[in-house]
Design a protein that fits this description.
Frataxin/CyaY_sf; Metal Transport, Frataxin, Chain A; alpha+beta; ferric iron binding; globular; ferrous iron binding; single chain; Frataxin-like protein
Length: 106
């Protein structure tokens, strides 16, 4: 994938995550600026997603750690095949927020 395609895919990913968060009845704030999507949970906890264009990755940081995702066979996954949506659900759970993974599709 070239750099333009990468940026289009990450833009689409961030928009899908934002739409997913908006479907939740939980108190979740998010802000997307300069290639970074910051998600804040009312009960505490923050998730930061950032573009890493030179590597064509998306990095996620939360209380559980840092994760690096690459686009592979239609999904954003880590080298251990952890899916981005699953990690987001786990991070939200740490902040006592329940996200329905069935509502998220890439």
């Amino acid at each position: 994938m070239n750099e333009h395609q990468y940026h289009q895919m990450v833009d689409a990913l961030f928009l899908k995550i934002e739409a997913w968060l908006e479907t939740s009845e939980q108190d979740i704030d998010f802000d997307s600026q300069e290639g970074i999507l910051t998600i804040s949970f009312a009960m505490g906890g923050t998730v930061i997603l950032s573009r890493q264009a030179p590597l064509q990755e998306v990095w996620l940081a939360c209380v559980q750690g840092a994760f690096h995702f690459q686009y592979h066979q239609g999904e954003w996954v880590t080298l251990r095949q952890e899916k981005l949506a699953e990690i987001l659900v786990a991070c939200a759970k740490q902040a006592n927020v329940v996200l329905d993974i069935n509502e998220f599709t890439i």
